Amino acid sequence: MDVSHWTLALxxxxxxxxxxxxxxxxRPVELSVGLSFFPSWLTAELALHHAVIQVVIALWLARAxxxxxxxxxxxxxxxxxxxALLALCWLRGFRARRAIEDALAEALGPRWTDFIDRPLADxxxxxxxxxxxxxxxxxxxxxxxxxxxxxxxxPDGRELCLDLFLPRVRTARAPLLVFVHGxxxxxxxxEHQGQPLLHDLAAxxxxxxxxxxxxSPRATFPExxxxxxxxxxxxxxxxxxxxxxxxxVVASGISAGAHxxxxxxxxxxxxxxxxxxxxxxTTLAGCVPIYGVYDFADRERLWPDPRxxxxxxxxxxxxxxxxxPVAYDKASPLARVRPDAPPFLVVxxxxxxLAPVAGARSFARALRAVSKAPVVYAEIPGGQHAFDxxxxxxxxxxxxxxxxxxxxxxxxxx
Length: 414
What we know:
Structural class: alpha/beta
Largest sheet: 8 strands, mixed
Strand order of the largest sheet: 1-2-4-3-5-6-7-8
CATH architecture of the largest domain: 3-Layer(aba) Sandwich
């Protein structure tokens, strides 16, 4: 093909990719996971980067001769349309501010920010740092990161480790957050997820830790949860050494980590999940699960393609809901809701193809029906799975709401 036809063909492909960021494919699972997710996620959260690169390439194609015949002209028009859609996609990320602010006001009251202690309010970021959207990987000089700190030894001799994120300027009895990474319970690593949350929260004076846990198929539930609780117990025991307050520990996580964080919050001090450390205190002051899975049995048939959850059942549970319904109740936060649950902020993207947003809505409703503590549900417009991995308008504005919720929670507990 000559340059004009290449321009036309690439314009069609690029439009399909950008359209997928607005309306991804939810079924069949082979298309949603294998084809739709990654282009949708990377386009939505890095839309401005895509637009700039495409403008440069389009100008080069025009200079190379694409502008001289009909095919090239149509192709360049498609490129221009695609850049406009990318700009719209990027601007849509700013809707996250209104979504999470409205959710917080609905659950906590219209003047909820008045109850945040002044020292905590003064450390909250006033607005996102727009320059970080150009270089979206987090780096902060005011945060000390300690990698690969052992916190548990498994029966086979392997060590589990965590990463610590500490403010360089320490305050006495800092609040403590435990973060659980995602990866479908089978992959993922603490070094690559939750970094904007962990760095920015540590810069506000929090002590943060990202914990490791055993992965399936080698691990079978509840081994994942046991490891997370071991991390909570270890951190609480050493809170004094870290300058943290052992009476105030909050859990957060993304995807599979959100599922485990929610379960940890809903099973405080349960000896079934604390073998060898049954007397350790694993209670939590709050929980912020982000695009999690809350019902392993899919009782309400919310998965667009049921084969998606069946893979989890086969790999993580290694049994079926029909054969062992009790095990599925124990593994599903939806079935573990309780009146004395700590405050929750449940965050989910509206176009998530890997963890259905309907599941987050159902969990928030069920928790609100029984919990005596506030339950905030924030649905982020245009948010794909993993939307918080990079600094972007959607990620940063959502995280600002998370930071304010945590500051309110800290103030309320005091």
